[in-house]
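User: Could you check the structure of this?
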Amino acid sequence: MLPIRTSRSARPVLAAVALGVSLTACSAQAASGPGSSKSQAPASAAAPAKVTVVDPAAGRPVSVTASGGTLAVVKVADAEGGVLVGRTGAGGTSWTSDRKAAPGTSYTVEVTSRTADGKEATTRSSFETPEPKEVNKLTLAPGKNTTVGVGHPLSIVFDLPVTRKADVERQLKVTTSNATEGSWGWVKDYSGRDRADWRPREYWKPGTKVTLEADLNGTDSGGGWFVRDYRTGFTVGASQVVKVDLDRQKLTLERDGRAVRTIPVSGGTPGGDKRSWRGTAVLMAKEGTINMNSETVGLGDAYDKMVDHSMRLTWSGMYAHAAPWNAAYFGKANKSSGCIGMSDENAASFYAQVNVGDPFEITGRDTKGTVAEGNGYGAWNLSWAQWKAKSALA
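Assistant: Sure, the predicted structure tokens are below.
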């Protein structure tokens, strides 16, 4: 999973600066003409509007107010040209930026005000927000502009703890090409980090285009500030579901609801820690030839071997892969160390057919439990009501 680079957008704010700056525009005095009558009272010039830039406290938008007049134009820009767009309130005497000011950023504020008699004046000021003490970053999956299977959620892993989950979730906007119903849910990644996944109510429809706008710049996660926005998007590919029956030691690949091939397999050995997980796991990555070491998953009997056509299903180490050393058990018995093994030939062709994001629906009486939400992409093992309850805004 790779961080996504984004184009520069208006950068929001983080720390407070004691501004409260009051700026008053000067106006010219009315001149008396050479033929003016002494009996006439001089024209009275309207007092200029008083413009105040309200202190943009930590994690808050920039505010501007006017007294004795209205706000005609307000422009707030950073040193690199990023602009904070905003809205003028009813009556035209207040303005608030849509976004928060960004941490560690210098801003200029240019305000054109207008008095009741239509005279305009322009004032300028500047302020700088302090650098954040802690910066939170994130990693997005799937990767940008990728095509994935119907089970892949939109997943965000945060580097630092997120204790203000509702504030963060409000800044995450998911758009789909067909108005797919879905919800954010907060889980702990297998590494213990906070993670937010957006899961559809049901598997994605093939061809769905998904985009994420994470306008996080200037948002306090509770464990650190975000100092940039993120953008990503992906497309959903073919409808493929892999059904693994460990009671019968077979794997069936279904495409558009129809079985296209069945493969004899051998799953995890019954009766102990070597049993396989059950429930729905999502193909996380096609890793090819990798080194597998039993010590990394806490198994007692040590083994260390190179394994071909490896397809990761969980962070805890369950894969589907080639296992020629178990050939005597394919289709007959479960004798692996927890993975789903098959012949070299079947593994090679199956590896070529499946896609990252394809769900594996695993059944079997003697398994060690259901895949947890954070152990890979286990959100599908919760009902829709259970998943929606994991949203910070539920």
